Structure prediction request, 569 residues.
Amino acid sequence: MLPRCATRVCNVFVLVLCLSTAEDFDWTKSDRGSFYYGTFPTGFSWGAGSSAYQTEGAWDKDGKGLSIWDVFCHKKGRIYQNETGDSSCEGYYKVKDDISLIKELKLNHYRFSISWPRILPTGIKSDHVNEKGIKYYDILLDQLLENNITPIVTLYHWDLPQVLQEKYGGWQNISMVNYFNEFANLCFERFGNRVKYWITFNNPWVMAVEGHETGEHAPGLKLRGTGAYRAAHHIIKAHAKVWHTYDTQWRSKQKGMVGISLSGDWGEPVDITNQKDIEAAERYVQFYMGWFATPIFHGDYPQVMKDFIGKKSSQQGLGTSRLPTFSSQEKSYIKGTCDFLGVGHFTTRYITQKTYPAGRISTYFTDRDLAELVDPSWPDPGSEWLYSVPWGFRRLLNFVKSQYGNPMIYITENGVSEKMMCTELCDEWRIQYLKSYINEMLKAIRDGVNVKGYTAWSLLDKFEWDEGYSERFGLYYVDFRNKNKPRYPKASVQFYKRIISSNGFPNQREVENWKRKAMETCSSSNQLLAADPLTSHMEMVTEIVVPTVCTLCILLSAVFLMFLLRRRN
Ligand SMILES: *[C@@H]1O[C@H](CO)[C@@H](O)[C@H](O)[C@H]1NC(C)=O
Ligand SMILES: *[C@@H]1O[C@H](CO)[C@@H](O)[C@H](O)[C@H]1NC(C)=O
Prediction:
C-alpha cells in the first residue's frame, strides 16, 4: 500500500505541473504543498454559517410546527446517544449574543437558514402563517444589517414540515415543488427587501442519499436504488421553479440573486495513467456534484449517470431506468436557473474502478462502479469521513469552472470538526485546515475561478444530525451541558480574524505570528471554560439560595415585628 502511495503522490505532482503550464503563475510550478502568499481580490466576502435545526433550538416554541428532524430525533436509536436538536445552541433566544460573535470576527456575511415549519407550521401557506416565526427572522435580519453584515439566506436546510412528509410522502412526491415554491415566495415577499443572496437548497445530495437511500437522516427512508433519484428529481424541479418565481416576480424590485448550495468531495484517480481509474474518478464527481449541477447549468443529468443507471436498470430486468427523465420543456426550464453557485467542500477521495455484479440489489453506490480509498497519511482530525486534503479543493473549483462555464461561486461550507467530546479550545488542527484550504481557494482564484466569498463552517458548535453533539465544527465552542449554552472562542477565531483583516496571507512571518498569538490566547479561554462548572454553581446560588435567603429574611422580619408590637402592647 505505502509504495503505491508514493507513486501516487508523484503522479499527482506531475498532473499539477501539466495543469499549470497553461497558466502564467509560476508559483504552481513548485511542490503541491507549497504555500502561496498573497491577497484576495478587493471586496472578497468573508463569512461563517449555521443552519436552523442545528442551532435554533425552541423546537416547539411560539407556534412552530414539527419538522421531519424533530420527529426523527425523537425516535430512539436514530441519533448518537439519542440526542436531539430540541434546544441545541438556543440560537432562537440568543440573536444579540451571536451577532456580537459575528462582529468580533469582523465578518462581511453571515449564512443562516429559515426553518420552513417555524413560518408555516403545516408547510402549507393557505393553512396558517406563523407571524411569531416571521418576527424572529425579521429581528435577525435587521440586526445583521444594522451591523453591516450581509445575510446569505438558505430556504431549505433539511427541515421539511412533518405534515408534508406524513400526508404526501415528502420529497418522494412531486407536489413538494409547489409547496416549496409557495414557501419561498412568502420569504421573498416578507424578507426580500433585506436579502440579496438566496440559496434554495443546502446540499441536496445528503437529503437525497442519506434521507431516502440509506435512511441515516430524516425522514429515514431506505428506498435503495430509487428513493434518492426520485427525491433529487423533485428537488431540482423545485429549485428551478423558485428561481423562476424570483426571476419573474421579484428580481426587478429586489435586485437579488438566487443560487443553490451543492456539496461535493473531490475524486482523484488512484492511478492517473489508468484510463479506468480516470473514468471512475470522473463518475464519482459526476454522481456527486454533477448530479445537481449538470441539470441546472446544462438542462439534463450527466451522460455518465444516464448510461450507468440505465445499464444497471436493464440488467435488473426493469423496463425503464431508475433515473427519472426530464421532458424537453423541463430541460429548458431548468437550464440556467442559477445566479451564483454555492459550493460546499470538506474532503477528497482516491477513486478506482470496481465493477459491481448485476445483482438484484442495486443502490446509488453500486450504480457508480467504483471504490473510494484514502491515503493513510492524510490527517483526519475530526469526523471519520473528513480527511484534510487541501489540494482537492483547488481541483474541485477548477472542475466547476470548466464544466459549468465559470459561474460566480460562493463557498458556502468549508471547515473541520474535532474528535468526540473534545473540550480543547486550542484547535491547532482547525487553524491548519483553514489556512491550507483557504490558500488552495486563493490559488484557484489565481487560476481564474470566479470565487466571490468564503463561508467558514461553522460559527458555533451545533447539533450534527445523526452524530448528535459528538462532532464539533464551530469556531466558537458551545458548552451544551450548561443550560445557558455559553459560547467560548477557540484559537481559530483569532486566526480566521487575521485572515479576514488582511484579506489573505501577507507573508510567512506574519502568518506564523498569527498562529503563535492565537495559540497563546486560547489557553486563557481554556481556563474560562474550565471555570465553567463554577459559573453554573454560581447560577444555582442565584436561583435557589438567594430566593431562599430572601424568604427567610422576610419571615424573620415579620417575627421580629410581631415581637416588637407585642412588647409595645
Ligand atoms: C437510545 O435509545 C435506545 C432505544 O430505546 C436504547 O436502547 C439506548 O440505550 C439509548 N441510548 C442512550 C445512550 O441513551
Ligand atoms: C402526492 O401529493 C398529493 C397532494 O398534493 C396527494 O394527493 C397524493 O396522494 C400524494 N401521493 C402519494 C403517493 O402520497
About this structure: Residues 1-31, 536-542 have pLDDT under 50 and may be disordered.
